[in-house]
Amino acid sequence: MKTVIVIGASGKIGQAAMKGLGNHRVITASRSGEGCDYRVDTTDKASLRALFESVGKFDAVISAAGHCEYAPFASMTEEQWDATIQGKLVGQMNIVKVGLDHIENGGSFTLISGILNVKPMPEGIADATTSGAIDTFVKCVAYELPRGIRINAVNPTVIEEAWSVYGEMMPGYQPVPGALVGKAFERCVDSFITGQVIFVDA
Amino acid sequence: MKTVIVIGASGKIGQAAMKGLGNHRVITASRSGEGCDYRVDTTDKASLRALFESVGKFDAVISAAGHCEYAPFASMTEEQWDATIQGKLVGQMNIVKVGLDHIENGGSFTLISGILNVKPMPEGIADATTSGAIDTFVKCVAYELPRGIRINAVNPTVIEEAWSVYGEMMPGYQPVPGALVGKAFERCVDSFITGQVIFVDA
């Protein structure tokens, strides 16, 4: 049994991730903290440090925290780009940077990207661009991690549990069960893979 | 003959790009403005707007402007990440966003990424991550551009002309002649391709 911190645990992907963690001790955190063990702001390194120090020993961190703004490229504002770059890209890199000082030997980080970088969608340019950045980051930074620590990304399509929210803007996409995304997170936590992007698509 | 604006024209890649533009009218710009027709700061949309208004009619914009900071991931500071994200990613997206209001019908944008996202290198994590973002951005935003406007990225390995600077940190990489990178930019300007990443590697 490993201790796994799930950041963004109250979101649909966080909930899906936890479907794969039944064999582990799960600690939950989110931006609002509602219904979670901890409150954390991934864009603030001090907030991340406080989370990791409060938890103590842990073996894995799962990030399901990747806030994106959606708009046509021509109307994306600087604020929307900044919110997406900070929320989806910088915030997740912060988790790894700060987490490295606290995670156990042989631990793992699993980040979240999203299918829009390989299946582009109208109004999805910021999500796509930052998902491409996360997939690249994971593949490249894996070589730098010390102490047997691993890093991977889960790149899911839309999940059935979120179809009522996103379905209308995603014609032609086949939603997958959240439990299948949970399997991908589980494999990242429990296997030996590193530097991989696990696509979950139908 | 097309009018082509080369941003970052005084750098090694900008010089390489211009080797492919002998048949065109070339307008040069760079951050310092030294030896160029114009001075421009790609992180400042007003500066870009002023450049495009000063030039008047143009058919293509080439960006060879992608400042990156190099360090091991564990020692990358927030300032280094921010400088790279602004310089290599946001600045180039700004060129497209602002340029769209000024470029001729059927015009083209060609951005610069770099081989480190597919051939990772120690201390290259910020360059790699933002290059992955640029490659993704180009592939996805191409579908959104109006008026027959195209967009591509050139993703080169190190060029011979820069080998004295980067060679020591890049054992096992084969530099290519800048003229070959110039060919890639020329093809992006003169062909009909869009949403493509042109790798120039050996």
Q: Helix fraction of chain A?
A: 25-40%
Q: Greatest interface and its residue counts?
A: A-B, 35 and 35 residues
Main β sheet profile of chain A:
7 strands, parallel
CATH architecture tag of chain A? 3-Layer(aba) Sandwich
Organism (chains A, B): Pandoraea aquatica
Pfam families (chains A, B): adh_short_C2 (PF13561)
Protein name (chains A, B): Short chain dehydrogenase
InterPro entries (chains A, B): NAD(P)-bd_dom_sf, SDR_DHRS6-like, SDR_fam
Protein topology:
2 copies of one chain form a homodimer.
Chain A: E1 3-7, H1 12-18, E2 25-30, E3 38-39, H2 45-55, E4 60-63, H3 78-99, E5 108-112, H4 125-141, E6 150-156, H5 163-166, H6 178-190, E7 196-200
Parallel strand pairs in A: 1-2, 1-4, 2-3, 4-5, 5-6, 6-7
Helix pairs in contact in A: 1-6, 2-3, 3-4
